[in-house]
Amino acid sequence: MPTADRARVAAVRRFSRFYTRRIGVLQEGLLASPFSLAEGRVLYELAQRPETTARDLARELGIDTGYLSRILRTFEARGLVRRVASQADARQRPLALTAEGRRAFSTLDRQSAKEVAALLAPLPEPAQVRLTGAMAAIESL
After folding, report:
1. Is 80:104 a contact under the CB 8 Å cutoff?
2. pLDDT at residue 23 is higher than 70
3. What is the largest CA-CA distance in the chain?
4. Which end of the chain is more exposed for a tag (fewer CB within 10 A), N or C?
5. What pLDDT does 1 receive?
């Protein structure tokens, strides 16, 4: 690997370490909740659609199906998720958040917005615009 490539790899890795530390994903509970980062993302994805399948969730998140299955079993046991009968295919059992699941997601969503606002608050508006622009550039690349 040429030196320039090593330097770019090192820069991306350094940024990744900085960002994960800064947003607190290495802490035990996501946003001081009982959920891990993966569980929080599963809740988020479930909250974005009225129902979905485990296969679609796994594909969307790029998550191992066995790991996702364990998360979903835990969510079902806690009353956060239910499986519903599919009207299109009796073999399918789409997933949907329960009212309790929606409340859990809502709490996480509010806390996340609050923490992001706190991260942005010390920056003057031009810096906030620059930061969010850089984030958009990263996403598009």
Report:
1. yes
2. yes
3. 57
4. C
5. 52
DSSP string, 22-60: HTTTTSSSGGGSS--HHHHHHHHHHHTSS-B-HHHHHHH
Amino acid residing at 59: R
Residues 61, 41 contacting (CB under 8 angstroms): yes
The pTM for the full model equals: 0.81
Q: Return the half-sphere exposure (C-beta side, CA atoms, 13 A cut-off) of residue 137.
A: 6
Write out the DSSP string of 57-125.
HHHHHT--HHHHHHHHHHHHHTTSEEE---SS-TT---EEE-HHHHHHHHHHHHHHHHHHHHHHTTS-H
The residue behind tokens 């859990």 is 104
In the chain, the amino acid numbered 44 is Y
96 near 117, Cβ under 8 Å? no
Q: Which two tokens stand for residue 63?
A: 């998550």
pLDDT, tens digit (0-9, with 9 covering 90-100), for 26-85: 777 777 788 988 999 999 999 999 889 999 999 999 999 999 999 999 999 999 999 887
